[in-house]
Design brief:
This protein is α/β, with parallel strands linked by helices. The protein has 5 helices and 8 strands; from the N terminus they run E-H-E-E-E-H-H-E-H-E-H-E-E. The protein has a domain of 55 residues. It is 33% helix and 28% strand. It is globular and about 50 Å long.
């Protein structure tokens, strides 16, 4: 056995998640995912162009992957227009955007996000240490570690809940609009 997870072809599975990043920020994307303990590979295949394959667990390509591509001109144009509106503090969209950001900080579990489960609390703690370093350096103001929860082993088992959870926010990647950022829930269960 080579350590890869094999799943029967009997049902629907999440094949991948597609993120986007700003032009020229591919290296930042790889640094972020490497801090999360993932492997990254840059692929350039016509007609799809360059994209980053983020491996979460060593599974075969197309199983439990994250793909990250550079934003297309159409999305860049939309984000530019929206950003100008958000920068106008008197606009309705500026107030709505601020409200969304408050929700992301105060109740991230009620805001759209993806979740990544770690194999152990120690792996989780190691990743948090790496992310804290990024937050204080090249990712300052682009990566925030936010709302977190820690439970005792007994409490976690009684609730079938993670022992540790934390939500992070970044505008380096997004499955939607980068100007609103991406929330990622990190969690670890009792081993």
């Amino acid at each position: 056995m080579d350590g890869r997870v094999s799943y029967p072809n009997t049902g629907r599975r999440l094949n991948h998640v597609e993120f986007a990043h700003r032009p020229g920020e591919g290296e930042l994307v790889m640094e972020l995912f490497q801090a999360l303990g993932c492997t990254c590979q840059l692929i350039d295949t016509p007609p799809f162009g360059k994209y980053i394959v983020v491996g979460l667990d060593g599974a075969s390509h197309g199983e439990n992957d994250i793909f990250v591509t550079e934003l297309e001109a159409e999305q860049l144009a939309l984000e530019s227009v929206l950003q100008r509106q958000i920068d106008d503090a008197s606009s309705e969209i500026a107030a709505a955007s601020a409200g969304l950001r408050r929700l992301q900080k105060e109740r991230p579990y009620r805001a759209t996000h993806i979740g990544i489960r770690f194999p152990s609390v120690s792996a989780f703690d190691e990743v948090i240490g790496c992310l804290e370093l990024l937050c204080s350096n090249q990712f300052a103001e682009r990566l925030e570690l936010g709302y977190g929860l820690t439970r005792s082993a007994e409490e976690a088992r009684s609730m079938t809940a993670p022992m540790k959870q934390i939500w992070l926010w970044t505008d380096v990647i997004s499955t939607g609009l980068l100007i609103f950022g991406q929330q990622i829930e990190l969690q670890a269960y009792d081993a």
